[in-house]
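Lay summary

Proteins are chains of building blocks that fold into shapes. Our project writes down both the chain and a compact code for its shape. Here are two examples, one after the other.
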Amino acid sequence: MATRALDNGAMGIVAPSVATHEEAQEIVQALKYPPMGRRSISSNMPQFDYDGSGIANKIKQLNETTLIVAMIETRQGLSNVDAIAAVHGIDIVLIGTNDLCAEMGITGQFDHPDINLAYEQVIAACNKHGKWAGMGGVRSVELMRKHIANGVRFVLAGSDLTHLASGAADQVTKLS
């Protein structure tokens, strides 16, 4: 499904629940063109207005610019975060905080010491391997700011539905 999204013009993929170095490598292999990966080449790319000329340069450009985000959502992924961050082609290693909290038996405790330690581990691995640390699943602006101050550089600050619902609730409050 991820390659279909890319074939239709998406410029990046967030891969959920990456737990091992091997899984991270498989993701890169599936989402990058040769020689980085094994993704099928098409000359009809929406990113280039379906112009099939100069395909070699376009493939190179897409390999350089297609964003691949590996989500850490399990204890296994967290224990392998250094190896995952080391994979060439992974751009961002992102903690899926909701799912990681649930896996750790601390559902909803986004500022729990174990989650703070997980952020430290991910940030350190990303810094070591020249990647960006990311976060998602946290709605608290205070916690987002805390992790940004500590080195997170990519933030999923909510979904379209979350933002629409928040805006609608704000409008209702203003009119009440």
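And here is the second example, written the same way.
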Amino acid sequence: MAAETPTANAPSFAALRGTRPRAGKWIWLGIGVLIVTLVAMLLVAGRNTLASDARTRPLAERTCAWLGCTLTPWQDLQAFRLLESDMHADPALPGALRVQAGFINDAPWPQAWPALVLTLSDANGQPLARRALAPADYLDGQHPALIGAGQTASVQFTVREPARAAVAFHFTFQPLASPAR
């Protein structure tokens, strides 16, 4: 009787020692396509989160340019800087104050125009009146939806003088309730 090898009695579905099933090149190509698709879907789904961070905004912009998607405008209110401001009685309108201001967008990207909040105060520093002005209130109708990076803006408008004399004023920037796109 002949000596039997250990694999001779193995069932037919058991692989012989040293042989393993191997994935073909089409399997690896399919896996690669699925991984690339998953990464693209994650980038598109999280594009606004990526776009809100200065470190990942360039990646989000390149990805959206390549895929044809849109990003929410950059918004960094700390990047708006007041350059000049002035307030004086309007000689043409009794009881009205003429307000002028200039500001710059120091952000590295264009962003939506902010709401300008004007606060008028008395001699003791107590607020007398506060008004939030949307871009439509302080810009003409032909302005672009975004203020460019490094772009300056000069605005002027008239407000009604409060009953008590306002001797000081202060501007702050606030986001719009629904940003312009």
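What can we say about the second shape? The domain at 77-174 is CATH 2.70.50.60 (Coagulation Factor XIII; Chain A, domain 1).
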